[in-house]
Structure formats: structure tokens, C-alpha cells
Amino acid sequence: MSKSFSKSGLSIPSIGLGTWELRGRKCRRVVRKALEVGYRHIDTAAMYENESEVGSGIVDSSVDRNEVFLTTKIDTTKVKNEGIVEAFNQSLSDLKTDYVDLLLIHWPTFSTNLGDMLEIMYGIKENQKAKAIGVSNFNTTLLNECARLGFEDIYCNQVEYHPFLSQEILFKKMSEMDVIPVAYCPICRGDVAKDSAIIELSEKYNKTPAQVTLRWVIQQQSVAIPKSAKKRRLKENIDIYDFEIDDQDMTRIHSLARDQR
Predict the structure, then answer these.
(1) In this structure, are strands 69-74 and 100-105 parallel, antiparallel, or unpaired?
(2) Residue in 48, 155, 161, 184 annotated catalytic
(3) pTM above 0.85?
(4) Could you report the per-residue pLDDT of 106-156, keeping only the tens digit for each?
(5) Is 48 assigned a catalytic role?
């Protein structure tokens, strides 16, 4: 299993650090630590109110900016279309960088319409301030709408995904459209460690429940962005490339879905 997935010449590491709810000095420290233990993909958002600390963490690390895949998101619940460019420039300033690798529409909330919003986002890409444009929390109807509007090259769709929440229909649509799935809350805030089936599989594969779950996610050609603040866990979450879950066990994990968000 490759450590990254590629689309349109741009590779995204299959495991990234989610930074939701990480704030202040702790956030800065965790980002630096993550990069030092081998992460090369950091996910943030204007809505998280931590872009400045994420940027500082990247600067503090000994890793070059061009080696880090950095994602941020426009807070579409607050920013109207005419304010997108200004909001994005503020994000760049806070992140202490002159570009991001991936820029997402955070929530499907549109002040006018989706077409206008995507037009503005792709303008940012054309100005080489973002290498790719994607979406977050979009359902199949909205993905179809992107295609209908002529935006065929949506890079990814970031959605909640873990063993207790089936996204089968949405994943099928993303596969058809060649949109990379990015799973947030992939270990369901640690709930996977309490599930007897996953515990059993963790013993079988000699890995932790989180490692089994993250491996299950990436074997579906999906990126995972777990959040952790502990160095041991950070290391653990990227140590998933030396084993493979067999088809029967993949199906068993799929069967745990219970529409839990």
C-alpha cells in the first residue's frame, strides 16, 4: 500500500494530522512533533481558529514547507463569496506560507450559489495560491452538482468516516468521479478501541485498534486524518504500512456500521 494517493499530478499522504480542537501552544507543539516523527500532511481550517499555531508548528520543525502537504478550509458558514479571497489571504498570512496544497469549501453553505463559489476557489488555484481545490461534508447530490456546473476535477471530499458510519453510497460516487475520500474522525474519537470485533482483530494483526482501523480506511483508497496530541499515538497512527487486512476482515469491520456520528 502506497503511503500516498495521487490525482492530477498531486500526491496526498494517506495519513495526515487532524488539528480540530487543538489550540494555542499545544497545537503548535503537536504540529511540530508530528512533523518530527514523520507526518507530511497537516489538516487545518479557518473555523478551527488555530491556523497561526499550525503555521508556527511547521516553521518550528526542521521540515521544509515544500515537503508538507497543507490543507485549510474556507469557513463558508461565515464568509460570503465576495469575502473568500480576503479570508483566504488571511489564512495564508496566519499559516506563514504563500500557498496551500489543498483548499476546501468547509461546509455546503452558500451565500449565493455553489457555481460562483467554485469559480472563486478555482481562481485562487489559477493564481497558484492553492495546488488543488476540494470540498468537505458534500453528499452525492452536491458532488453531482459540482460536475453539472463543469467542475469535474474536485480533488477530494472530506467527510466523517469510521467503522460505525457507512459511507458506501458516497464512496461509490467519489470513486466514479475520481474524487479522493478524506476521512475525519476515522477512529471515532477512540471508540474503536472499545469494540470487541476490532479488539479481536488488533490481537490477530498484532496492532492497536486504532492502527487496524486506520489501515482499514486507507485500504479503501481513502486518506485518514486522525487527531492526537500524544507523541506515542502520533507515531502509532503512521505505523500502519507493514501489514494488510484480509478481505474477510475488511468486510467484518464494514459490518460494524450503525449510523453513529
Answers:
(1) parallel
(2) 48
(3) yes
(4) 999 876 789 999 999 999 999 999 999 999 999 999 999 999 999 989 999
(5) yes
